[in-house]
From TrEMBL:
It is an enzyme of class 2 (transferase). The gene is LOC105179612. Its EC number is 2.4.1.14. It catalyses: beta-D-fructose 6-phosphate + UDP-alpha-D-glucose = sucrose 6(F)-phosphate + UDP + H(+). This is Sucrose-phosphate synthase. SUPFAM superfamilies: UDP-Glycosyltransferase/glycogen phosphorylase (SSF53756). The lineage of its organism: Eukaryota, Viridiplantae, Streptophyta, Embryophyta, Tracheophyta. Signal peptide: none annotated. Residues 810-990 form the Sucrose phosphatase-like domain. It comes from Sesamum indicum (Oriental sesame). Keywords: Glycosyltransferase, Transferase. InterPro entries: Glyco_trans_1 (IPR001296), SPP-like_dom (IPR006380), SPS (IPR044161), SPS_C (IPR035659), SPS_pln (IPR012819), Sucrose_synth_GT-B1 (IPR000368). It comes from the Eukaryota. Belongs to the glycosyltransferase 1 family.
Length: 1057
């Protein structure tokens, strides 16, 4: 019974602190010792029992309570509490079982995917080639030599590449980013990643051949943070020292406003505003590309060489920007969502739903999956990150990636399957300011100056030294230095226990903990505050006063001095984190001559392999940590050997070395960029006349719709425009009319609106617009046939826009639909609407784009198909989708299970369309996307037309991306677009709401959509895609007419200013 005393004690403590806080029906979220700033002892004690309980022990405690029951209320409450805690413990085991089931299902799905890929790709191989592929699929741990041989074929980036003028974009959205006095450790979002991306931008700008580097981040204009984070731009450095510096060369931080302007948001709350960032970043890129074209591009835009996203949120953004601009994307994950989810589930403290609610983990994982879909290259810091972390993702399979790479080298068809290339590039560091002094008495002199009470003029020393050493009784002892934010995963408390319980270590060394900056622990976030409180308690428990330093503040510029102080005392740097993805502080410490003790999990393994300057330990093994520290501190020969090894090999982690490898890898990517030229000569009208914009827009209004479908007379429009104007304007109108009559001479086909031509309109009317009204109402009946009321809505919207001359004279119209072009033409014709009444027609869910031609014919955009073609595997997708959709889960293929059939009339070269025969068998979009990713297939899959069709289009094509294409192609800013939707729609509906465009949602127009087929339970939340309260989204009431619509448009126009 003595073994049960700890349980008994905790139960009594729970009873004293208020047992009513225990929830009977769910396993609550993981315990934060500090809950919203207030300590919750009940949660703490319950957590201790639930995580450490053995059911037999808890049962014996209950037996004891029952046996000693008396009339006192306390015994009855204690008995009841035993059962309630037992219920929580069983719930924890249930979560663990569900996690095992989930992993088993995932392994089965992965193997099934590999099997399907092997079958599909073996069909076009000879027997000998099949044997090679099988061998590759089986022995995939061995091709390390093949990988190295392939890498050696890359042309290393040379310092002679000065003739190149590259424009590189880096993206790091969360946290507080600035070039000087970085507030690292201020919060969990402002950590090592911030320092890394700023230094990477500076280092790349210094490389030969790189002209400009832009680091995009969020603009924060909030009283919570320093004013500098609200500055639109900040220069980090000029260009390469030996290069001809241009007006815009160098490295810059570019802050894009998105989300609430006056709030600093943690990264989990930024997700709904990602598309808003994308639109703002796109505007900057287009302006900068044009400016660089004038400076160094001979008048042609200088497109970004690569767009590099850092972390999941930036990866999501980079994927969309890459698709909008058709330029390569690179990804660095830094830390990964699936890895975090696996660890949290293994702890058994939180359900998947609780984890998702706290960390928005499913939205983060989907962003990482999309990033893998779009990325040409994924940069990691370690090989472990590739196999053990990225290997958890649907979109990356180590085995399949090597098979596809081998087939690619032989020129064998991969049937549209792709895997991103992974490259291990160790993080870089700036060593220019590192001064490593040889062993001398100078260091001792500095320390003596601080401790000398007799000298009247002590030697000046860094202020941070004084701040650290005021904690220490004997600052001459070797310093064990740990530098990290007070995050539980950094494992600072285990280090402190190891130090406190090892007497020889305490006698030989001091411990210095640099744990970010703090003013008041009560004002810190729960996790950080919990760690600091534990640190203070442990210092008191082991009586470590005078042995442990933990200063409250330090500046980024103080960090080198802290390393130098540890080096002067012949100390050791330690990183005891449970998992360390990067280990940048280990490199910094080695550059200052400090040996290291580091976790064996993650990046430190590769750093130790390169530097050989210390020891690796199990972060969970307290004794192992103490032994390693004692060994390094006490054995001077070993200490000196580790110091020398670190200093000798540290050049491997220099920024020039990192950037050279980086540019070599990026240069090996498949380069792509927009193909069109923008030196479009002015048309005859613009060349001959300097016609003002308002008059041009009045001319364009002749194409607008009337309520009954009748065309307004061109002469009537011009006469009305000329009335009341001076004679000069009237003369201009007459000259315009004369030119237009001449250009219209010749016969026209009366049915031209039904015909397409391969000769595009070189200068579509769209390029003259300042605003674009995009009608994207998805009104279909239960058979997927467009409803006649859509015609009425189009006419009512047209009437509304025409009723405001100020808006109408600048505005054009576009129609965005899931219908293919021939069907759309027939539908509009049934309502007496001409297709060339629109400036652009986005068809087949964004896979086609048309403009009205100069002669009234519809012209496909000549560049759009190649623009969206990236990773489009038509044949592989067609075969795989048919198999997946017509085969039940765990079943075999058969005619009786067919859920779809191909809709040939609605398909085209970049759109696979299927009719849904049995909606109950239709798999949700997220489930299908997962299965396709596991088979190496990348696409944008959606259900549309009231859940009667499934359409599959290229990965980075969509109706929302088509709007960005119009921005890039014709400079019609997305922020000047008005997208008109119903209350529901196709499964791409959410994509159409977010962004800098204005969204007008007409109530009562679309009664049923396809959104229920978008995602299963447990996936990301709609609130993580669409902002809940956005000034850019407005609603009209049901049954609204033109007046209500135009009033809402005016309201949105004012909100967007």
């Amino acid at each position: 019974m003595a073994a049960n005393e700890w349980i008994n004690g905790y139960l009594e403590a729970i009873l004293d602190s208020g047992a009513s806080a225990i929830e009977e029906n769910k396993a609550g979220p993981g315990v934060n010792v500090r809950d919203r700033g207030h300590f919750n002892p009940t949660k703490y004690f319950v957590e201790e029992v639930v995580t450490g309980v053995d059911e037999s022990d808890l049962h014996r405690t209950w037996i004891k309570v029952v046996a000693t029951r008396n009339s006192r209320e306390r015994s009855s409450r204690l008995e009841n509490m035993c059962w309630r805690i037992w219920h929580l413990a069983r719930k924890k085991k249930q979560l663990e079982w569900e996690d095992l089931q989930r992993l088993a299902n995932r392994r089965w799905e992965r193997e099934q995917g590999r099997k399907d890929v092997t079958e599909d790709m073996s069909e076009d191989l000879s027997e000998g080639e099949k044997g090679e592929v099988s061998a590759e699929a089986v022995s995939l741990d061995s091709p390390r030599k093949k990988f190295q041989r392939n890498s050696s074929n890359l042309e290393v980036w040379s310092d002679s590449n000065t003739e190149k003028k590259l424009y590189i974009i880096l993206i790091s959205l969360h946290g507080l980013v600035r070039g000087e006095n970085m507030e690292l450790g201020r919060d969990s979002d402002t950590g090592g990643q911030i320092k890394y991306v700023v230094e990477l931008a500076r280092a790349l700008a210094k490389m030969p051949g790189v002209y400009r580097v832009d680091l995009f981040t969020r603009q924060v204009s909030s009283p919570e943070v320093d004013w500098s984070y609200g500055e639109p731009t900040e220069m980090l450095s000029t260009g390469a020292d030996d290069a001809d510096l241009g007006e815009s060369s160098g490295a810059y931080i570019v802050r894009i406003p998105f989300g609430p302007r006056d709030k600093y948001l943690r990264k989990e709350l930024l997700w709904p505003y990602i598309q808003e960032f994308v639109d703002g970043a796109l505007a900057h890129i287009l302006n900068m590309s044009k400016a660089l074209g004038e400076q160094i591009g001979g008048g042609q835009p200088v497109w970004p060489y690569v767009i590099h996203g850092h972390y999941a949120d930036a990866g999501d953004s980079a994927a969309l920007l890459s698709g909008a601009l058709n330029v390569p994307m690179v990804l660095t994950g830094h830390s990964l969502g699936r890895n975090k989810l696996e660890q949290l589930l293994k702890q058994g403290r939180q359900s998947k739903e609780d984890i998702n609610s706290t960390y928005r983990i499913m939205r983060r994982i989907e962003a990482e999956e999309l990033s893998l879909d779009a990325a040409e290259l994924v940069i990691t810091s370690t090989k472990q990150e590739i196999e053990e972390q990225w290997g958890l993702y649907d979109g990356f399979d180590v085995k399949l990636e090597k098979v596809l790479r081998a087939r690619g080298r032989r020129g064998v068809n991969c049937h549209g399957r792709f895997m991103p290339r992974m490259a291990v590039i160790p993080p870089g560091m700036d060593f220019s300011n590192v001064v490593v002094q040889e062993d001398s008495a100078e260091g001792e002199g500095d320390l003596m100056a601080l401790t000398n009470s007799e000298g009247s003029s002590p030697k000046a020393v860094p202020a941070i030294w004084s701040e650290v050493m005021r904690f220490l009784t004997n600052p001459h002892k070797p310093m064990i230095l740990a530098l990290s934010r007070p995050d539980p995963k950094k494992n600072i408390t285990t280090l402190l226990k190891a130090f406190g319980e090892c007497r020889p270590l305490r006698e030989l060394a001091n411990l210095t903990l640099i744990m970010g900056n703090r003013d008041d622990i009560d004002e810190m976030s729960g996790g950080n505050a919990s760690v600091l409180i534990t640190v203070l308690k442990l210092i008191d428990k082991y009586d470590l006063y005078g042995l442990v330093a933990f200063p409250k503040h330090h500046k980024q510029s103080d960090v080198p001095e802290i390393y130098r102080l540890a080096g002067k005392t012949k100390g050791v740097f330690i990183n005891p984190a449970f998992i360390e993805p990067f280990g940048l502080t280990l490199i910094e410490a080695a550059a200052h001559g400090l040996p290291m003790v580091a976790t064996k999990n993650g990046g430190p393994v590769d750093i130790h392999r390169a530097l050989n300057n210390g020891l690796l330990v199990d972060p969970h093994d307290q004794q192992s940590i103490a032994d390693a520290l004692l060994k390094l501190v006490s054995e001077k020969n070993l200490w000196n050997e580790c110091r020398r090894n670190g200093l000798r090999n540290i050049h491997l982690f220099s920024w020039p070395e990192h950037c050279r490898t980086y540019l070599t890898r990026v240069a090996a990517c498949r380069m792509r960029h927009p193909q069109w030229k923008t030196d479009t000569p002015a048309d005859e009208l613009a060349a001959d006349e300097s016609l003002n914009d308002s008059l041009k827009d009045v001319l364009d209004m002749s194409l607008r719709l009337s309520i009954d479908g009748e065309r307004t007379s061109l002469n009537e429009t011009l006469d009305a425009a000329a009335a009341g104007n001076n004679s000069e304007v009237q003369d201009q109108v007459k000259r315009v009319m004369s030119k237009m009559k001449r250009s219209e001479s010749g016969a026209r086909d009366s049915d031209s609106d039904k015909k397409l031509t391969d000769t595009p309109s070189k200068y579509p009317m769209l390029r003259k617009r300042r605003k674009l009204i995009v009608i994207a109402l998805d009104c279909y009946d239960d058979k997927g046939v467009p409803e006649k009321k859509m015609i009425q809505f189009i006419q009512e919207i047209s009437k509304a826009i025409r009723s405001d001359q100020q808006i109408a004279r600048h505005s054009g119209f576009a129609l965005s639909t899931a219908m293919p072009m021939p069907e759309l033409i027939e539908f509009l014709k049934s309502g007496n609407i001409k297709v060339n009444d629109f400036d652009a027609l986005i068809c087949s869910s964004g896979s086609e784009l048309y403009y009205p031609g100069e002669d009234g014919k519809l012209c496909p955009d000549p560049d759009y198909a190649s623009h969206i073609d990236y990773r489009w595997g038509l044949d592989g997708l067609k075969k795989t989708i048919w198999k997946l959709m017509n085969t039940p889960e765990g079943g075999k293929f058969g005619q009786s299970s067919n859920a779809i059939e191909e809709d040939v009339k609605s398909s085209n070269s970049h759109c696979l369309s299927y009719l849904i025969k049995d909606l109950s068998k239709a798999k949700r979009v997220d489930d299908m996307r997962q299965k396709l990713r596991m088979r190496g297939l990348r696409c944008h899959l959606m259900y549309c037309r009231n859940s009667t069709r499934m359409q599959v289009i290229p990965l980075l094509a969509s109706r929302s991306q088509a709007l960005r294409y119009l921005f890039v192609r014709w400079r019609l800013n997305v922020a000047n677009m008005y997208v008109i939707l119903g209350e529901t729609g196709d499964t791409d509906y959410e994509e159409m709401i977010s962004g800098t465009h204005k969204t007008l949602i007409m109530k009562g127009t679309v009664m049923k959509g396809s959104e229920e087929l978008l995602r299963p339970t447990g996936s990301c939340l709609r609130d993580d895609i669409v902002p809940r309260d956005s000034p850019l989204v407005a609603y009209t009431k049901e049954g609204s007419k033109a007046e209500d619509i135009i009033n809402t448009v005016r309201h949105l126009s004012a909100a967007g200013v």
